[in-house]
């Protein structure tokens, strides 16, 4: 007999109990099988089994809720939206949606014949949505106890409340958006900045890099992206994520796209975006790290230089797309500035990475200049600064503030057919500056 055929201790216990329960107490005592102590224990077992469970027992054994926090809208398009939500354990899920609160449609993420089964994050893409529509939606999740291939136990389904969002409309006459940057996991700054965004009521928010210091754990990754400062922030307006140099650092940096999704149309350049929103074309570019790929700190794990070059080829194409080319305003978002001053100790002929993204200048600026882009919005330096288009600088540049609350900023953009107005605000409500731009393609 091999080891797999031997009865286990648990099977002995079960069989012994079944045997004992099949006999009367008197028969057990007469047979001398157990002592009086065991008889007493047997009475206690049966008494306990006949008692209703206490509230304390019910509380102790209640499983945690499978849905955690609120959903996050991402990757908006004229006819689509992505939804990301957190779960507390292994789960499958879906999104129910429609143009009324009755919903009526459902999308189940997955592939190759299988519905999704994952933890701690689920996501789904809504596509083919009516143009400029208001969409109502809720997320759902069901816990799955996958014991083996032939024993899968499904728990109770949980649903979020019903939320609504409006798709970006390329033909809208007006558009408002906000930009935050360099929050670096500082809850106080995040809470106030996101509160300011709520107050300003934009149609979407751009998070312009350095959400993190570095990505060290799954819990940190999920909390910072889906529940920053413990709050819901993108249930009714989407967030557009622009990667910063600190967002590509850390042992789990390669898992960032589980929470901050890549745009489905851009494949390996999925952190770049080109989106028409009313009179504005919003561009997002990824400046990557702030040192050359050959720097020893990366241990040979960086290849940002060919990545930036590939973005230049992508940019040349998207800027000629009709909905982008015809927009009155073209605004670029990238974490590291495209313009700046060289360090005093810089070596002649050596490319600058830290103060500004010189490789971005090389591969991106020719296309942006040709398209007559009016403004670059950046972060990285932790110091607000506006640089007008002058002295050979082809477009204006606005740099956001610091993770330090008194120096943090929210940038508000407001566009009409007549003008683009951009305002930098401190958290105390003080206005640092307001700048106005005429259309690049005047009628």
From TrEMBL:
GO terms for molecular function: acid phosphatase activity. The keyword Signal applies. Pfam families: Metallophos. InterPro entries: Calcineurin-like_PHP, Metallo-depent_PP-like, PAPs-like. Transmembrane segments: none annotated. Residues 178-383 form the Calcineurin-like phosphoesterase domain. Keywords: Signal. This is Calcineurin-like phosphoesterase. It comes from Planctopirus ephydatiae.
